């Protein structure tokens, strides 16, 4: 209920509510964006664009259609994909399709030594490779079930249930 | 509805991912409002994914909030898109201002010069007006003299230089009707200081001189024509040099010019 109230305040143009939303979702959104773009500065730009869109288009968010988190997630993925498809970004670097979020976590725990990344990576290491791929495509990249099935060459009917198992494992480690 | 089976189907994960169609999502939303355990399940999935994606962030982008808030408050203001570009209008403006100032200065200088030459011209004009007035005056005088000379009633008497000044010469014009005698003394030498020419009307037999006047202000008078009253019945005219103020009788040693009236 508290979350719903916060969103109503955001929709009425309350800057304090916006600040709270930023605190709640900026790190996660930055992670989503960075996983697609793989450039810190460009990701920062996209992150700001995403939160400006959240502020400007808050009234278009409809609770009945889905989670606020999902709404933000969609904006972030779309903005990131638009960015890497844009001409100026293509000229800058090639997007490596094989990259997934696991690389980031590995790189992060190797260099920055941040506890949360190290801790999380330990659990992710416990996930089987198929789980990592499923979560990367479905969650981080926003693939549909059909696209995921084709990408991973698995039956369409198994995407939903196998993903469920993967998330269960993740949750038992994280939460 | 078997809630546990519903949860186990994996639809809720796809719901949070945003991987469901719009109608499927709306359906899940309705279900989670109805069943609290579905809602709790969705919140836990969401929490796990939030943690996972946060771990993928290179760092906490907290510092971006300030500039973001500035952008929010600037939403209604005009965003200056030309800031980074060369500000041509400003440069042109400055250039125009400088040109304008140069132009203004040039005009100012020109104006000052014109004013100066105008002043000079005005002075010149005043001088010319004075000259013209003088000339007109002179012309008037000359006209007057000319009319005198042309008057058939006027008798011209040449006065020849005498032994003291053989080159001296003068002419008397005698208007018998108006009793006026004009003396043209142009060819008389300048009188010495403290001396003055005195004009005498002469009767010949016996020689009787009577003064008809002095040629005052001799040096200052330009045309050297003097108008004197003469009521005498003159038979001749003589001019002598006398002490200032004139004399009762002519000083014959100082006789400069003499002539008789031819009858």
How would you describe what is shown here?
The complex is a heterodimer of chains A (175) and B (263). With 175 residues, chain A is mostly helical. Chain A has ten helices and no strands. In chain A, helix 2 packs across helix 4 (68-85) and helix 9 (145-152) crosses helix 10. Chain A is globular and about 45 Å long. Chain A starts with a helix and ends with a helix. Chain B is built from six helices and eight strands, in the order H-H-H-H-H-H-E-E-E-E-E-E-E-E. Chain B has 263 residues and is α+β, with helices and mostly antiparallel strands. The longest helix of chain B is centred in the middle third of the chain and has 63 residues, at 88-150. Chain B is 45% helix and 22% strand. Chain B has an eight-stranded antiparallel beta sheet with strand order 5-4-7-8-1-2-3-6. The termini of chain B are far apart. Classes of the chains: A mainly alpha (175), B alpha+beta (263). At the A-B interface, helix 2, helix 3, helix 4, helix 6 and helix 7 of A face helix 2, helix 3, helix 4 and helix 5 of B.
Q: Helices and strands in order, then pairings?
A:
The complex is a heterodimer of chains A (175) and B (263).
Chain A: H1 2-11, H2 15-37, H3 40-57, H4 68-85, H5 87-92, H6 101-111, H7 115-126, H8 129-140, H9 145-152, H10 156-174
Helix pairs in contact in A: 1-2, 2-3, 2-4, 3-4, 6-7, 8-10, 9-10
Chain B: H1 3-8, H2 11-17, H3 22-34, H4 36-55, H5 64-73, H6 88-150, E1 154-161, E2 169-175, E3 180-187, E4 195-203, E5 208-214, E6 225-229, E7 236-243, E8 255-260
Antiparallel strand pairs in B: 1-2, 1-8, 2-3, 3-6, 4-5, 4-7, 7-8
Helix pairs in contact in B: 2-4, 3-4
């Amino acid at each position: 209920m508290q979350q719903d109230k916060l969103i109503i305040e955001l929709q009425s143009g309350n800057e304090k509510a916006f600040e709270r939303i930023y605190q709640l979702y900026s790190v996660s959104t930055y992670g989503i964006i960075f996983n697609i773009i793989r450039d810190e500065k460009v990701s920062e730009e996209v992150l700001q664009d995403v939160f400006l869109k959240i502020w400007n288009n808050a009234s278009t968010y409809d609770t009945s259609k889905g989670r606020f988190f999902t709404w933000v997630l969609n904006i972030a993925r779309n903005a990131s994909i638009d960015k890497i498809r844009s001409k100026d970004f293509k000229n800058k670097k090639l997007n490596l399709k094989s990259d997934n979020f696991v690389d980031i976590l590995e790189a992060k725990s190797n260099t920055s030594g941040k506890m949360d990344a190290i801790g999380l990576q330990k659990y992710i290491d416990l996930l089987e490779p198929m789980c990592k791929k499923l979560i990367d495509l479905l969650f981080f990249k926003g693939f549909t079930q059909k696209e995921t099935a084709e990408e991973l060459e698995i039956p369409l009917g198994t995407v939903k249930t196998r993903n469920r198992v993967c998330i269960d494992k993740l949750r038992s480690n994280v939460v | 509805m078997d809630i546990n089976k519903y949860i186990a189907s994996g639809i809720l994960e796809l719901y949070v991912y945003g991987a469901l169609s719009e109608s499927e999502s709306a359906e899940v939303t309705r279900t989670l409002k109805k069943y609290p355990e579905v809602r709790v399940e969705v919140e836990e999935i969401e929490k796990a994914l939030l943690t996972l994606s946060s771990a993928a962030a290179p760092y906490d982008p907290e510092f971006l909030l300030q500039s973001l808030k500035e952008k929010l408050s600037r939403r209604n203001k005009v965003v200056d898109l030309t800031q980074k570009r060369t500000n041509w209008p400003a440069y042109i403006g400055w250039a125009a201002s400088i040109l304008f100032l140069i132009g203004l200065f040039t005009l100012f200088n020109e104006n000052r010069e014109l004013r100066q030459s105008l002043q000079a011209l005005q002075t010149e004009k005043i001088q010319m007006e004075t000259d013209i007035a003088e000339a007109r005056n002179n012309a008037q005088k000359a006209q007057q003299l000319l009319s005198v000379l042309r008057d058939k009633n006027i008798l011209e008497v040449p006065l020849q230089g005498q032994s003291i000044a053989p080159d001296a010469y003068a002419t008397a014009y005698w208007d018998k009707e108006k009793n006026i005698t004009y003396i043209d003394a142009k060819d008389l030498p300048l009188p010495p200081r403290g001396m003055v020419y005195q004009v005498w009307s002469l009767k010949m037999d016996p020689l009787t001189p009577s003064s008809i006047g002095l040629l005052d202000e001799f040096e200052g008078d330009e045309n050297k024509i003097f108008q004197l009253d003469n009521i005498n019945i003159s038979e001749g005219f003589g001019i002598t040099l006398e002490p200032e103020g004139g004399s009762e009788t002519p000083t014959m040693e100082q006789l400069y010019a003499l002539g008789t009236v031819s009858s």
